Amino acid sequence: MITPGVTPQWLHGMFSRIAPRYDATNTIISAGLDRRWRRHLAHCAARYAPQVVLDVACGTGGVLAHLARSCAATTQLLGVDFTEAMLRVGRRRHGTVAHPHRLHLCVGDAQALPAADRCIDVVTMMFGVRNFDCPAAGLAECYRVLRPAGHLCLVEFTWPRAPLLQRLYSVYWRYVLPFLAWPLCGERAAYTYLRDSVLAFRPQADLTALLQRSGFTAITTTTLSGGITTLYDAYKPDTPLHVVGATGRAPQPKEISS
Ligand SMILES: C[S@@+](CC[C@H](N)C(=O)[O-])C[C@H]1O[C@@H](n2cnc3c(N)ncnc32)[C@H](O)[C@@H]1O
After folding, report:
1. Pocket residue to mutate for ligand 1, from 82, 107, 157, 229, most atoms within 8 A of Cβ
2. How far apart are CA 219 and CA 236, in angstroms?
3. From the CA of 244, how far away is ligand 1's center (Å)?
4. 46, 136, 146, 246: which has the fewest C-beta neighbours closer than 10 Å?
5. Ligand 1 geometric centre to CA of 55 (Å)
6. Domain locations in the chain as residue ranges
7. What mean pLDDT comes out for the span 176-181?
8. 3-class DSSP assignment, residue 104
9. pLDDT higher for 253 or 124?
């Protein structure tokens, strides 16, 4: 586990308790930027014209809502999360969208995904990998379920590059956020955890290296909101890694502006 002392059981209990307030709290503490980040992620996935997208650690289905707008009407959208209470909020939300028949949410562990090998065109993930007991195992599962030449598009918190923004951001995370989030989500420990997990996971290079070790290539990163978050786009080679030469690399997608 990335954050010392935190177990998957504790995490599951915490997300179960805050599920009804999760979306509102996120939007307030990020000043609405979370929606923008989800939109970027959905656009990234939609560029590959996928027929099947799996959103891992989908929570209340916020990314899926953006995918439903960005992808073709025929695209199957699947969501997996290990917290039933988060999925319940998601089912209520998606019960009101135009094409509920193409959306499926199911309970499952990101480190043992309930999907066959090579059946997904694009895997998306936002604020998931940082929470996993073993991030490498979660990424290996994304790799397993992706079809050859598929993409993993994910957004995770990083750290701003500008020194002044870094200082302000550090003060916000360390001192302001837990006290702001506590009354909003009703659980101070939840956002103390958020702070600790982000601070532990922040070096951007770590995630790129982790993606490479999982077998992904042609990894591009797009800095969002001055570096508060980063969008990663990683390619699963269409031939096994040991025979991939220069020709096994995917064409680079266009840069997305933040
Ligand atoms: C910070 S929330 C992110 C939710 C959503 N992706 C979003 O953009 O709002 C993290 C989610 O990861 C889920 N999660 C954490 N560990 C998991 C695991 N091992 N397997 C499946 N879901 C997991 C939690 O239940 C929670 O819903």
Report:
1. 82
2. 10
3. 33
4. 246
5. 10
6. 8-237
7. 76
8. strand
9. 124
Q: In whole angstroms, give the CA distance from residue 47 to residue 73.
A: 14
Report the 10 Å Cβ neighbour count for 205. 9
- Residues touching ligand 1 (Cβ under 6 Å) are 8, 11, 15, 57-59, 62-63, 81-83, 86, 109-111, 126-128, 131-132
CATH of span 8-237: 3.40.50.150
Measured CA to CA in angstroms, residue 51 lies from 45, 48, 105, 118, 227 at distances of 11, 9, 17, 13, 31
Provide the pLDDT for residue 239.
75
Predicted pLDDT of residue 98: 56
Q: Which residue has the tokens 């570096």?
A: 227
- Residue 216: its pLDDT value, please? 97
- Can you give the pLDDT at residue 249? 42
